[in-house]
Write a structure and sequence with these properties.
alpha+beta; five-stranded antiparallel sheet; 5 helices; 5 strands; about 45% helix; about 20% strand; rod-shaped
């Protein structure tokens, strides 16, 4: 009788020990708990890198447009349309139809009042530029640009709407990347546009 109780006790002890040492189920449960976090980290890193890349391309497009216009003595609508095409080429392989660009020439009078000399824009998938800000309308020039004492600026504003299935499902339908770049003409005191209207 005593030997039978001892056998039961040993079997129960072995079963408890085997249960404590068993890790097969624990690994599966840990994997199931950690997998969603790993997937979110991977997708977040992927989307973050894409967002960084499109932001860098939008910044490059903005500065390139400003530099191209700033290095001329005058521009025409045809030349501006070619410059808009350059911006679309820079933003590739991202969708150039999501890129909005506006180029404005801003004059500053001796009293420091900034007004629009000419302005053209191209939105989305358009192939021709359209009038931008109204000629002669006041322009809110940033104080740091006013302080330089320059009397003429080329201001380039770009907006890129970045769409992503992940961002759409988690944050918003799109993220807008806005860039502004101001440059003083390099070859002359002003850059007129002969047929901008």
């Amino acid at each position: 009788m005593r030997g039978l109780q001892m056998n039961r006790w040993l079997r129960m002890r072995r079963a408890i020990g085997a249960f404590a040492r068993a890790r097969d189920g624990a690994v599966a449960i840990e994997f199931v708990l950690v997998l969603p976090i790993l997937v979110l980290l991977y997708l977040g890193a992927f989307e973050g890198s894409k967002l960084f890349e499109v932001s860098r391309k939008a910044n490059t497009a903005t500065e390139t447009i400003g530099d191209l216009v700033g290095r001329t003595r005058s521009v025409t609508l045809r030349e501006l349309n070619n410059i808009f095409d350059v911006a679309r080429a820079i933003i590739s392989p991202f969708d150039p139809g999501e890129l909005d660009v506006q180029i404005s020439a801003i004059s500053i009078d001796p009293q420091g009042k900034a007004t629009v000399d000419w302005s053209r824009k191209r939105s989305g998938a358009g192939t021709q530029s359209m009038p931008g800000l109204a000629k002669g309308s006041p322009y809110a020039l940033p104080p740091d640009l006013k302080a330089t004492g320059n009397l003429f600026y080329i201001i380039v504003d770009t907006r890129y709407s970045y769409h992503s299935p992940l961002i759409h499902s988690v944050i918003a339908s799109s993220l807008d990347i806005d860039m502004t770049y101001g440059i003083v003409p390099r070859l002359s005191s002003i850059v007129p546009c002969s047929d901008c209207g």
